[in-house]
Amino acid sequence: MLTRRGFTLVELLVALVLMGIVSAGIYRVLINNQRIYQAQTQRIDLQQNIRAAVTILPAELRELDAADGDIINMGPSWITVRGTRRIGFVCDPPVIGVLAGNIAPAVVKVRNDPQYGARGIDFSTDSLLVYYEGNQGNTNDDGWVRGDLPAAGVPAVCLDAANSAATQYNARLWFTVGQFAVTGMIPNGAPVRAFEPVSYSVYQAGDGRWYLGYQSRHGGGVRQPLIGPLSGANGVRFDYFTAAGGTTGVPTQVAQIRITLFAETAQLVRQRAGTAAYVSDSIVTTVSLRNNRRWVTGAPGS
After folding, report:
1. pLDDT(269) > 60
2. Percentage of residues in the chain with pLDDT exceeding 90?
3. Three-class SS of residue 151?
4. Which of 33, 40, 177, 212 is 20 to 30 A from 224 (CA-CA)?
5. Is residue 222 part of a domain?
6. Domain enclosing residue 145, as ranges
7. Hey, is 215 helix, strand or coil?
8. Neighbours of 208 (CB within 10 A)
9. Which residue among 196, 221, 239 closes a domain?
10. How many structural domains are present in the chain?
């Protein structure tokens, strides 16, 4: 017949020691898994940060035509440009009024469909660039006319067979030398680009880290962090090149922009040696601007 007996003190001590060893092992596994998870999360966030940089900046800069003044100001860690926000098409030749200086009032109808862009045209922040055809038998006078929008657009109808819906803007067009403020110089179907002046610049935030900030220059907009944290004050560098491949500091001569970015993880990552440090990564990309060939080569009409 079997009888129950209690555990001896030695057996209890052995059980407690074994349980402590197993618990310590499980705890170490959990801590290591947590560290690995944190490190992977930080690296993924860093890679996403870099991908955002090579997506946003080239898309913005590729639309620029330096010869038409799309680069307002530039430096090694900042650039101010005309950021395109909407592209549409004129549905009737704009009716151009009496010229006052180099500014003429104009009625510009923009077809509602098709249009392309991240948002609609906002008269409080946007200006227009309207394609100027001029003499249709000569390409030397082709270019863009800048237009201000003093008020919001109003619904209108295109004078086509379908009476297509449009938006009418009472704009002020700024004509340059060689452009004539005459109805018909801007034809039906001419592209219209709505843009706002924006700056991309490296700055140090309140947390002491460095970021690439985005700021609308219309009305002194608030700067917002776009990419970061960066590896320091030189975390983003812009290099500017002419069509011949030489560097330049003249905004109207820029044909390519090289972007070099050094980014860091947002949090410290524990290394194998047990120390914690920020993990960094970098990328270099070059953007070719949409400069018209004849301006790039310096040979009008080519």
Report:
1. yes
2. 31
3. coil
4. 40
5. yes
6. 82-196
7. strand
8. 7
9. 196
10. 2
